[in-house]
Structures are given as C-alpha cells and as structure tokens.
Amino acid sequence: MSREGAYEVVQRNAMRAWDEELPLRALLEADPESAGLLDAAALDAVFDLDNFLRHVDDVFDRTTERLGVTRV
C-alpha cells in the first residue's frame, strides 16, 4: 500500500473514531484495507503510549532547566 493510501485508510478510520467515539485500533483491525497489513504485535507497538512518552521526563527537565524553574 502506498503512503498516500495508508494515510487515507488511517484518516478515514480516525475520523470515524472521533465522530462515533470508537477506539481507533478496533476500527483499524476491522477495516479490510488495513487488517491484513499489521498484525496484533505491530498494532501493539503503534498504540503503546510508553514508547511515545519514554523521554517525557528528560524533556521536562531540560525545559524547566532552561527556564530556570525548579521542578516539583
């Protein structure tokens, strides 16, 4: 699938998730265009918040240091 095609599939499902208050992951798993492209392990990695937040403490530390703010 092309990058543009993948964007279209994700965008369509993201809008539906927003409009209908449904979980995006479940929609992607049920969508015939995306279901065969990512297995459960790949979706686990994509939806793993720890992966996205792993450096948040470092970012806050650098930011507060540059601003001269003491972190509580």
Task: Describe the overall structure.
With 72 residues, the protein is mainly α. It is built from six helices and no strands. The N and C termini lie far apart (47 Å).
Give a quick rundown of the structure.
The chain has helices at 3-20, 24-30, 32-35, 40-46, 49-53, 56-67.
In quaternary terms, these chains amount to: single chain
Write down the overall geometry: elongated
Strand content: under 5%
Distance between the termini: 47 Å
Number of helices: 6
Number of strands: 0
Largest sheet geometry: none
Helical residue percent band: over 70%
Ranges with pLDDT <50 over ≥5 residues? none
The ordered string of helix (H) and strand (E) elements is HHHHHH
Give the C-alpha Rg. 18 Å
Structural class: mainly alpha
Task: Provide the residue-averaged pLDDT.
Answer: 91
